[in-house]
Structure formats: structure tokens, C-alpha cells
Amino acid sequence: MSAPLQLTFLRSAAEPGQLPHSDAEVAIVGRSNVGKSSLLNALAGRKDLARTSKTPGRTQLLNCFVHRDGGTLVDLPGYGYAKVSATDRAAWRRRMERYLVERDALVMTLLLIDGEVGPTKLDQEMLVWLRERGVPFTVVATKHDKVRSSQRQRRRRDLAAGCDVDPKAVVWVSAVKGVNLDRLRDLVRTWLTGT
Questions:
Q1: DSSP character at residue 60
Q2: According to CATH, what is the number of the domain 7-193?
Q3: Does an H or E element contain 186, and which?
Q4: What's the helix, strand, coil split of the chain in %, to 5?
Q5: pLDDT 10s digits, 26-82
Q6: Quick count: other Cβ atoms within 10 Å of Cβ 20?
Q7: pLDDT by residue (tens digit) across 117-152?
Q8: Is 78 left (phi over 0), alpha (psi -120 to 50) or beta?
Q9: Alpha-carbon distance 120 to 24, whole Å?
């Protein structure tokens, strides 16, 4: 079993230039309410590292977490539905996009897709945007526990096809049940530390 990631909250920033220097950085991005904060807490083996909420759109800034062995994780604002103005949502999106294209330390982007729902139109737009700009990404399907076991094989194929990626390249996880957290932790450690 893989040990939890040793992460410490460092700071929130409104702009990429306000983030600290990092040799390697992994970003977490996804639709509002896809479970970004829950997954971050599960990877760290803590309940209070990232603030979770049932209300979409709580993450509004670039939230930076430093890893004990080097590198940083950055939780980006969610895209899509949130109970805020369209102006605020647009500002969050611009902040996220500036980060993804300007941050030299970025080595991988974890694109979280709701495994129960599959890729939405907004998710597919994000995939196109990442590909067009050459931003490295890995699809992480959340909420594995909410997909019935009898439907999982088909859902894996459908989700991968909807994202236009190889089904084996998708990391299916459950923050609630701990499914594949070890695999994702090992991947993140490798991206951050090169080991």
C-alpha cells in the first residue's frame, strides 16, 4: 500500500505569477462538483487539507500545496456550474487557463471526469483546449464507487471513447472507497520527484 502524499497547504493565489517557484508541478482541474477537493484530501490521507463543499464553485483561486519530497500540487478553480455570476465564472476560467499555459513548472494536469456521468460538453471542450495548447494531461475518472459493478466495463470503454483516450490510460478512482488511490499517488510522486 502506498503511503499518503505528504502535502502542506502553502498559499492561494489569484494569478500564476503569485505562486512560489517549483521544480515540478501537478495541476488538478475539473468541472465544479467533480470531487477535486475530496480527491486531494484522499491522496493526502487527510480530511481537512482541502475544503470540501456540496456547493459547486468553492475553489475560486489557485490553491498551492507543497509536497514534502519536492514539487507542488495546484488545485484550480472548477469550470461549469456554480452559484455565482457569469462574470465571476469567466474570471475563474481565465485564471485557470493562464495558469495552464504560463506555468513553466507544470509537468502534468489531472483532468477529473465524473465517472458516474461521463464526459460532459464542458469536459470535452477542456480536452480540446488542452490538446490544442499541448498541455500534458491524464484523465482521472472519479466516483468509481457510484458506478454499478455490472456497468463498469462498459462505462470504462464509453468514458475513454468520450475523451478520445485509451481506456488503459484512464485512472479510475474513488475518494470514498480508496479505489486506485495508491496508483494515483505513485503517479503523482513520479511526476513531482522524477523517482
A1: -
A2: 3.40.50.300
A3: helix 181-193
A4: 40, 20, 40
A5: 999 999 889 998 999 999 999 889 876 444 444 578 999 999 999 999 999 887 655
A6: 12
A7: 999 999 999 999 999 999 999 999 999 999 999 999
A8: beta
A9: 29
